[in-house]
């Protein structure tokens, strides 16, 4: 499954990373090594990194997320992303099941 993973380091934590051995380059390198993104974007105006990650290994993603939390002092935003064909295969039945479950609850 593909995910868009985004985080922004706090100003304070970003300054700590910048002053650490290897600086931001080492930290970003480790994060990229863990997530193995298909593509990524680093903002030049704030300490923000956005990646497209393709993985079915939730344990590895959890480990990588914890590294980001410890290093960047940030929680990740993780959004599933898919092609139009994948969306048409996945979403209609999921929505149908969700509506049925909600109706069972009286909504």
Query: Count of DSSP helices?
Result: 4
Report the β-strand fraction as a percent range: 15-25%
Q: What do we call the CATH homologous superfamily?
A: Dimeric alpha+beta barrel
Structural class by SSE content: alpha+beta
Rg over CA atoms, rounded to whole Å, is 18 Å
CATH T-level topology: Alpha-Beta Plaits
List how many beta strands DSSP finds.
Answer: 4
Helical coverage, percent range: 40-55%
Examine the secondary-structure arrangement and name the CATH architecture. Answer: 2-Layer Sandwich
What is the highest CATH level, the class?
Alpha Beta
Low-confidence segments, ≥5 residues, pLDDT <50?
A: none
Main beta sheet: 4 strands, antiparallel
If strands are numbered along the chain, what order do they take across the biggest sheet? 2-3-1-4
Output the helix-strand order: EHHEEHEH
The backbone outline, from C-alpha atoms, is elongated
End-to-end C-alpha gap: 31 Å
Count of domain modules: 1
Q: Whole-number average pLDDT?
A: 93
What is the strand and helix layout of this fold?
Elements: E1 2-8, H1 11-19, H2 23-35, E2 39-42, E3 48-54, H3 58-72, E4 77-81, H4 84-104
Antiparallel strand pairs: 1-3, 1-4, 2-3
Helix pairs in contact: 1-2, 2-3
Relevant terms:
107 residues, Alpha-Beta Plaits
Short description:
This protein is α+β, with helices and mostly antiparallel strands. Helices cover 54% and strands 21% of the residues.
What do you see in this structure?
The structure is a single chain. 54% of the residues lie in helices and 21% in strands. It has helices spanning 11-19, 23-35, 58-72, 84-104; strands spanning 2-8, 39-42, 48-54, 77-81. It is elongated. The protein has one domain (2-81): Alpha-Beta Plaits. It has four helices and four strands, in the order βααββαβα. A hairpin with a 5-residue loop joins strand 2 and strand 3 (48-54). A four-stranded antiparallel sheet has the order 2-3-1-4, with no helix packed on it. The chain has 107 residues and is of the alpha+beta class. The mean pLDDT is 93. The two termini are 31 Å apart.
């Amino acid at each position: 499954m593909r995910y868009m993973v985004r985080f922004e380091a706090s100003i304070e934590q970003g300054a700590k990373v910048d002053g650490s051995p290897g600086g931001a380059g080492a930290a970003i390198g480790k994060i990229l090594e863990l997530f193995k993104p298909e593509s990524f974007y680093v903002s030049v105006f704030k300490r923000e990194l956005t990646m497209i990650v393709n993985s079915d290994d939730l344990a590895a993603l959890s480990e990588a997320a914890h590294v980001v939390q410890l290093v960047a002092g940030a929680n990740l935003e993780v959004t599933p992303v898919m092609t139009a064909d994948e969306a048409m295969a996945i979403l209609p039945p999921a929505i149908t099941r969700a509506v049925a479950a909600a109706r069972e609850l009286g909504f």
